[in-house]
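A reminder from the course coordinator: this example appears on the midterm review sheet, so study it carefully.

Given structure:
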């Protein structure tokens, strides 16, 4: 798919999402961003997109709720005229010790990391089908793809991100006849948390065969590749600098 004059909806317009959104605009797309609490980052990304001569739309949406996903997609089509690409980047990454986990902790990860991707895809698919093609890109995690729950305290996150892989392959089969390709990206060490101690930052670098953090640009490249391909579907691709090899 050529991105020129296509319309992209990206959920989770913060940090890596900003980088991805701006790169898609550089490739000629108009971009809609949704946010829950990160309005400042989403608005800043929209300004960068407009500076590139592309249209941008910013919407507040709690994508953990099915009706919000439906309204979000409808507003994008109403505001930008169509919807060609959906990038599901909204995520919850929260550490909770297993012995203190509640049903609500598990449900929060499932609602944002898994169900939002399902609900946004369900809302987007009819518009892509009407256009004759489409692309959906989900976000899993390198640990889920590698089947290695390395860090304690992230049961809900790991379960949800593993389920994203299943959702991706199942949707790829369901939507293939409509020429809608569905893939996922599984990031590894991309951006360090702002409060990560220097010692831990260096430890991650040592554990990564390429010896560094990737940066948001690497995820943007992967998203572009999965949008532009016409023959890859149902895949979850690690972008982790070889982290899974050690």
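Designed residues:
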């Amino acid at each position: 798919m050529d991105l020129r004059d296509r319309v992209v909806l990206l959920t989770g317009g913060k940090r890596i999402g900003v980088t991805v959104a701006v790169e898609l605009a550089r490739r000629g797309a108009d971009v809609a961003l949704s946010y829950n609490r990160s309005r400042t980052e989403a608005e800043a990304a929209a300004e960068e997109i407009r500076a590139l001569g592309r249209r941008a739309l910013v919407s507040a949406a709690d994508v953990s709720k099915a009706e919000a996903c439906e309204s979000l997609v409808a507003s994008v089509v109403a505001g930008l005229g169509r919807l060609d690409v959906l990038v599901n980047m909204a995520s919850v990454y929260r550490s909770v010790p297993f012995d203190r986990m509640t049903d609500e902790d598990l449900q929060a990860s499932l609602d944002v990391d898994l169900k939002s991707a399902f609900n946004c895809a369900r809302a987007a698919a009819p518009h892509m089908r009407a256009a004759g093609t489409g692309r959906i890109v989900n976000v899993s995690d390198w640990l889920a793809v590698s089947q290695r729950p390395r860090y304690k305290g992230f049961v809900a996150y790991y379960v949800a991100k593993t389920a994203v892989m299943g959702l991706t392959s199942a949707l790829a089969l369901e939507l293939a006849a409509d020429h809608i390709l569905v893939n996922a990206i599984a990031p590894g060490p991309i951006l360090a948390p702002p409060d990560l101690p220097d010692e831990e930052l260096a430890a991650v670098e040592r554990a990564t065969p390429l010896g560094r953090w990737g940066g948001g640009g690497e995820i943007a490249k992967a998203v572009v590749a999965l949008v532009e391909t016409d023959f890859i579907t149902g895949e979850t691709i690690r972008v982790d600098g070889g982290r899974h090899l050690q």
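The mean pLDDT is 96. The chain is about 50% helix and 15% strand.
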